[in-house]
Write a structure and sequence with these properties.
alpha/beta; Rossmann fold; nine-stranded mixed β-sheet; globular
Length: 221
Amino acid sequence: MIQTIDGVQTIPVQIPAVGVMLEGDLAVPPDARGAVLFAHGSGSGRFSERNRAVAATLQAAGFATLLFDLLTAAEEREERYTRHLRFDIDLLIGRLVAATEWIERRPETVGLKLGYFGASTGGAAALGAAAERPEVAAVVSRGGRPDLTPDASLFAVQAPTLLIVGGDDRQVLALNRRTMARMRAPVALEIVPGATHLFEEPGALDQVARLAREWFETYLR
């Protein structure tokens, strides 16, 4: 069912990938200035409250957003027991690339500059997909695992990349710093003081949303 709230039209969509259909929500504000695809981490999906909060900030700034499930419902059920897909970065990259090809053909978003917002393992998927789709103009990673991006993909990324990490998420912060030193694309690291991996502390997610908005406003103009 299509919904319109504050002028933003949200459309339930199905995205074809290899052998599967992925469920998603495409939100398009009037006169959209760009489109951002969200790649969530393992155990999460298009209903992630954190990603939806960031998406709402981007929509208010004039960006279309696509939140979608990287796994099917059946895969999610199986994953609870086997955990065999959460670190299958090549699979996640392939599905994000499929969503990119799909959104480029949608009449609501055709011709818009594209960006990726990845969280946790979705950060690795976003960088890997950006390497395959050089038209992607910017990448933001929240508490991401860019260290899981295949080396060849990491070196091939051209899109300006922002890595956002909580100051108290020490292991992930160290991994981001090491990966940042290996990247050839323009890359910046923003540390949210006092924040842990899920940015659950008061005001932490607001900082993430602001930093993401500013990054996409710079590179999706």
